[in-house]
Q: What sequence folds into this?
């Protein structure tokens, strides 16, 4: 390759990106795995705050007296509509929500793995469909 003439700079334009190259980061993001523990902690904190807010509203608001919140004691051992019950309820809210969030993340990751595997197998089958015709 000959160098460019003196006084003339070579300008190299970047090659145009193909549609596949532009789509790859989007697909990588769409099929990204959810971190099960992080998703569980996020939903756990939301569940604990929700349980605490509901219990706090029942403690503070006189309009919430008719709401049978004490029935949650059936499912959450140690819970009551009281200040110590607020802490117990938040603990139970975190635990139940953490498990639910972890399971949702696990299920999503598993379903996406099955979908990705199915897409990969179909693409390989499509690519090798006429393989025996060439032999």
A:
């Amino acid at each position: 390759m000959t160098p460019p003439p003196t006084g003339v700079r070579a300008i190299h334009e970047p090659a145009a990106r193909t549609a596949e190259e532009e789509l790859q980061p989007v697909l990588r993001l769409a099929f990204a795995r959810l971190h099960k523990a992080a998703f569980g902690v996020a939903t756990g904190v939301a569940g604990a705050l929700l349980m605490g807010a509901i219990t706090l509203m029942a403690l503070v608001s006189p309009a919430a007296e008719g709401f049978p919140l004490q029935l949650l004691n059936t499912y959450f051992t140690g819970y009551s509509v009281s200040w110590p019950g607020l802490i117990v309820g938040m603990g139970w809210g975190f635990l139940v929500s953490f498990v639910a969030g972890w399971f949702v993340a696990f299920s999503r990751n598993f379903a996406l793995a099955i979908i990705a595997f199915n897409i990969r197998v179909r693409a390989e089958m499509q690519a090798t469909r006429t393989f025996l015709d060439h032999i």
